[in-house]
Amino acid sequence: MAFTKHVLFVFLTYWLVLQITTSFLEAAPEASLIKSLPGFNGTFPSKHYSGYVTLDTKPAKNLFYYFIESERNPTKDPVVLWLNGGPGCSSFDGFVYEHGPFNFEKGKNEGDLPILHLNPFSWSKVSNIIYLDSPSGVGFSYPKLETGDLQTANDTHAFLLKWFKLYPEFQPNQFYITGESYAGIYIPTLIDAIDKGKEVGVKPGINLKGYMIGNGVCDDYYDGDNAFVPFAHGMGLISESLYKEAYKICRGDFENKDRECQLIIRELYNVTSGLNIYNILEPCYHGNGNSVGAKNMTGLPASFRELGKTNKPLPVRNRMFGRAWPYRAPVRDGLVPTWAQLTDSLKRDRNSVVPCYNDEVATRYLTDKDVRKALHVSPEAEEWIICADPFRYYHNAGSMLPYHKNLTAKGYRTLIYSGDHDMCVPFTGSEAWTASLGLKIVDEWRSWESDSQIAGRQVLPEYKPSESLHFYDSWLQRNKI
Ligand SMILES: *[C@@H]1O[C@H](CO)[C@@H](O)[C@H](O)[C@H]1NC(C)=O
Ligand SMILES: *[C@@H]1O[C@H](CO)[C@@H](O)[C@H](O)[C@H]1NC(C)=O
Ligand SMILES: *[C@@H]1O[C@H](CO)[C@@H](O)[C@H](O)[C@H]1NC(C)=O
Ligand SMILES: *[C@@H]1O[C@H](CO)[C@@H](O)[C@H](O)[C@H]1NC(C)=O
Ligand SMILES: *[C@@H]1O[C@H](CO)[C@@H](O)[C@H](O)[C@H]1NC(C)=O
């Protein structure tokens, strides 16, 4: 009898395991599985899915996502949602140029499809990650509709509820939301929507643990000239005497609207114009593949120039359109200007442009008809463009400070990180607004290490991929960064 029991036990265990494994495998929508990708010759290190979640709105909104299972342990690793900013920029920006599973090598001849290599620093090494094109009208999501912060937060919440129904095996995993730039607005408003949903018990439950924002927009006062001027001064981009004069004239508040103050601020912008605002150490490129540095960077000490180098095995691109909010254009309440309008008005009024752009690798790849097919893109979706334009979008959620206050008080874990050479949303602003929250300091300001190197001078995941994977994983695993 004991023997039979044992066999039965083994059989039951086997059967259970089999059931669990099969249900694990079968739960994800098979039709969304990506079997191959043009330009990629290798084996997928984990499962990749892509497709749409259709919201029950009128008209229906079809939100496009690309989901990658963790290459380490999909069952245990957290699920992370990634959002690029804009508003209006596709999250394929992060996928192609920052921490996605592939490095895109430009085709040999003009017009050739890029070649895909596995990215050794992909964030899918340590997490399950969803790249979402949001709001509707961005990237492969459609149709294009007028929207704003609060509606977008609601829609993305609705997306997540449906997504977790499609992939129920991931419901127990810890869930985090992360992104850059204008996602500094998307994320707190979305967390708030999810949190409100939890309070009224919407199903399925989302195991939300926290959020991470890189060079994010937060608040007019802190992110505007009060961030830019101390940044330019601290980085040695403007002279001590000019800084002191500006400080005096503006009486310590560079957002001061007095004419005299505005004039000197204008001068400061003139002095710093031509730099690559997203990474002041990188050369600046101007349209048409014309890659002449506007400022000759040899004026900087050699150690500074070295910092701009990347350990990505393939060349990084020379543009960051949707990466960060263009500087001198603080996010104000109301209709957010389109990128075209911004570019024009910046040129006209501020002797400044949205520079350094060239997204040809992503554009060549994602507008290819075989790639669209392999990614399950609907024929109804418009041709892929990195930042949807024109796009009527309203900033109607105000400052993010009250959101951060409430959400951190509720126990959501938060990581606010900045590339210290980003002049667009400079770290000085993030440092000032986070300090304004008045939180208790549990770990004093210090440098952090990656590979036994001081890595605190981190730029962006694009420029420091291995360090960014390191801090990303440490933070998700609740280890000291
Ligand atoms: C694809 O793999 C085959 C066989 O390994 C190789 O001959 C070919 O050159 C590869 N193509 C590319 C584009 O890497
Ligand atoms: C968002 O959802 C909440 C709760 O369902 C609702 O009360 C609110 O009106 C919605 N807001 C928008 C802008 O759709
Ligand atoms: C900007 O600087 C240049 C010289 O570098 C000068 O000719 C020009 O007048 C300045 N413009 C403003 C608006 O200060
Ligand atoms: C930058 O300046 C150095 C030294 O003044 C010069 O040799 C070099 O040609 C300049 N490069 C460019 C691209 O102007
Ligand atoms: C923050 O919490 C306070 C107190 O509950 C509430 O009055 C306020 O509306 C909340 N603000 C946001 C943006 O959630």
Automatic annotation (TrEMBL):
Pfam families per the UniProt record, alphabetical: Peptidase_S10 (PF00450)
Enzyme kind, highest EC tier: hydrolase
SUPFAM superfamilies reported for this sequence: alpha/beta-Hydrolases
GO CC list: extracellular region
EC number, as in UniProt: 3.4.16.-
Signal peptide segment: 1-27
GO molecular function: acyltransferase activity, transferring groups other than amino-acyl groups; serine-type carboxypeptidase activity
One of the GO BP terms on file: proteolysis
Keywords: Carboxypeptidase, Disulfide bond, Glycoprotein, Hydrolase, Protease, Secreted, Signal
Localization: Secreted
Main subcellular location of this protein, as a coarse class: secreted
Keyword GTP-binding: no
PANTHER family reported for this sequence: SERINE CARBOXYPEPTIDASE-LIKE 20, SERINE PROTEASE FAMILY S10 SERINE CARBOXYPEPTIDASE
Family: Belongs to the peptidase S10 family.
Protein name, entry field: Carboxypeptidase
Organism per entry: Oldenlandia corymbosa var. corymbosa
